[in-house]
Specification:
The chain is α+β, with helices and mostly antiparallel strands and about 80 residues long. It has one domain: P-loop containing nucleotide triphosphate hydrolases (Rossmann fold). It starts with 13 loop residues before the first helix and ends with a helix.
């Protein structure tokens, strides 16, 4: 995201704005994270990176609760449905 650091957030793509929102939510290392459609607007690479991050958070014992209308995303990440 360094290449975009001098641009206004309003000029970012939807996926980039999602990443900014996620960074804002994670900066304080919350023990519980509540997300609404976190993968919306992301390209496949961004989705995989976020899935890996959320999976690691769960492995660390953090609670990640998210909504998604894409069942495949839920199945790949959820330990409880």
């Amino acid at each position: 995201m360094e290449y975009a650091q001098d641009r206004k957030i309003s000029t970012y793509s939807k996926g980039m704005r999602q990443r900014v929102k996620m960074a804002s939510a994670l900066v304080h290392e919350p023990s519980v994270l509540l997300l609404d459609e976190p993968f919306n607007g992301m390209d496949p690479r961004q989705r995989m990176q976020l899935m890996d991050l959320l999976r690691r958070m769960g492995d660390e014992g953090r609670t990640v609760l998210f909504s998604s209308h894409i069942l495949e995303e839920v199945e790949q990440l959820a330990s409880h449905i």
